[in-house]
Request: fold
Amino acid sequence: MPDPSLPPGSVAAASPETARLLAFDTSTERMAVALAAPHGAWTADEAGGAQASAALLPTVQALLARAGLVLAEVDAIAFGRGPGAFTGLRTSCAVAQGLAFGIGCPVLPVDSLLIVAEDARVQLAPEAAEFEVDVAMDARMDEVYAERWRWADGRWHELVAPALYTLEAFAAMAAGSGGVVAGSAIAAFGERLGLAPGRAVVAAEHDRPAALLRLARAAWAAGEGVDAALALPLYLRDKVALTTREREAVRAAKDAAEASR
Reply:
């Protein structure tokens, strides 16, 4: 077990190659869980959403068993902090905080949209020195969680901070970049995203747990571990559901828009 008084990146901390890192993200309809150790890496890509709260801990225990490790041997716990589904973020943060407090290790907050960007980079241009991507994830209610990232100098740089956009606002934001667009919003909204013709897209992730694990290792190497008390979610929406009257108003607006075409 690591010495909790020593931050990651200190002389006594394990290197990225030898660190035992547990990572998970439950911000989407898929639950990504990964474990790295000096003798290998193990991942799980399971159904998430409402099932994540019940399935996350058993999946963690299963990966530890496959690796021949116990939780107390983990050096740090990486978690998807969001943005994403309200219940999923609460699950990820609460489990990360509880486990980290229990074994006295730091946590590594990971931007959940950056996981999508990293997966898209490896799908399309793993050897490229530079890669720019607008991540757009379906946030329901005709909105998207979006962020812009650029890969350069062997690491990710945030160009546009994560925010909640209407479809029209996202189209305006995305028009400012000629990079790739990646994320679940592509399949959810299609042409309604308003992307320029011929814009390269990555509609589906290939290996979310592996992308998460790469980011966890990078965060550990950069000394980004923080105290378990700081395992906090990134919420971009205070309101998670519409009232019946609001849903009717949205439906009426959609019908009016269709009739005007």
